[in-house]
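Problem: given the chain below (359 residues), write out its structure.
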Amino acid sequence: MAPGASTAAAEVLNSGYVGEGPQVKKFEEEFQQHLGAHQPPLMVNSGTSALDLAYELCNIPEGAEVITTPLTCTATNLPLLRRRVKIVWADCNVDTGLISKVDLLQKLNRNTAAIVAVAWGGRIPEMPPINLNTRVILDLAHAPQPLRDSDRSSEGSKKILRCWSFQAIKHLTTVDGGALLPPTPSDRERGRLLRWFGLDRESSVSFRCSQDIKEPGFKYQMHDVAASIGRCNLLHLPIILSQHRHNARILYEIFSEYPDEFRIPHYDPTAAYWIFTVLVRQRRDALQKFLQHRGIESGLVHSRNDIHTCFRKVAPVWAGQLPGVDYFQAHQLAVPCGWWVTEENLYWIAKCIKSWVET
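Solution.
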């Protein structure tokens, strides 16, 4: 937690106004500046709420097809189950874990209402040109970096809804919270109303007793206590991102020395590197135990969603249907690269990897 966050939160608590108010609005404006976005995002109470609100804005009808990735936190896909859509699993790029553009285009059709892609580890997925009337939802829980120039200027960006998580262990935390950046002002206005039951908190008309609810909404708004913490932490986000990238660069160099043992994607200087994932060609579990005995935590951050009973009932996957996901799931290992990892820690990781390879 950033210095000053506890003081800022205490000031809000002592102010007598702890609900959605001026701190949320300021946080939205400041995060917009950080992103370089064309309009402020909508702050909500979790990354899951941001995703569900995005799905609502996409007007996905029951039974429509949604192409999504199984390589993510279940929070990405569970809201789709509740909406009773037809989930179509897309394969992944075997090196990065990102959604496969080739498989995506093969499965895209006129029944596809939406596509959900995840920025695994903070690496932004590249979306192919989509001519159909299909919306795209980007789960950027691992990727709070500024938008790229292409994200702001392309015609296709008008179809993309971007979602972030500010959960406790993310780069930027509000203890729990999230944000949604809709692509158009009309989408944002609709989302602003839907995050609070469908009521307009900015109207001079009393929202408790006098306003008419035209569209049923949710209770997804962020409160000022969380926003005050987020504003303090946002000041440190550029440094946090820089340190994650620095550590990831060193880890890339460490694992690149052993191509027979590890498969890793190219280093991307624009990625956020919330985690650093390597693919261990053989003996992954043995390596994890080896590192654990030497004080280095590693493991699987997310497991494929399609193995869960609730997903298998509606979107079964047969052996070999998703070969990229099969390989990635069987070989992935995340090693620490966060801002708290020191040069000494990285040296120790390098020494341990060398020792393991030579045994």
